[in-house]
Amino acid sequence: MNPETLFSVANAVALVGWIILALAPLRRPLAIGAARTIGVVLAIAYSALLIRSLTGGGFEGDLTTLAGLTAAFSRPEAVLVGWVHYLAFDLWVGAWATEDAGKRGVPHWALIPCLFFILMAGPFGLLLYLATRMILGRKAAG
Known about the structure:
The chain is mainly α. It is built from 6 helices and no strands.
């Protein structure tokens, strides 16, 4: 598959995971397991893309400098590797937040904006969830 097709497939697969998390109150453990499975599938795809890029010349330049990193990510294959990395990690963090919210009694309605921001701006979304958990959480995780 070409990088554009792989990009579209990865986005669609990740979106399924996010929709499952948004519907988590219906079957929380099943939703978390499904999202984590999708996260693992994305991590496997990431690993394959990374190995292919490293062995096939997809990454060129010095990755220890900003200029080198910019040069490396000027190639579609390298951008695809980076994007799938984001998709896998953000979905995993979203699944963790969903699980943690259930344990701590954070209302699902309050989790939804956090999930959106974990998807769109990972670390900011995580911080938003941690703040929400601190304010609205009712019990300690066990």
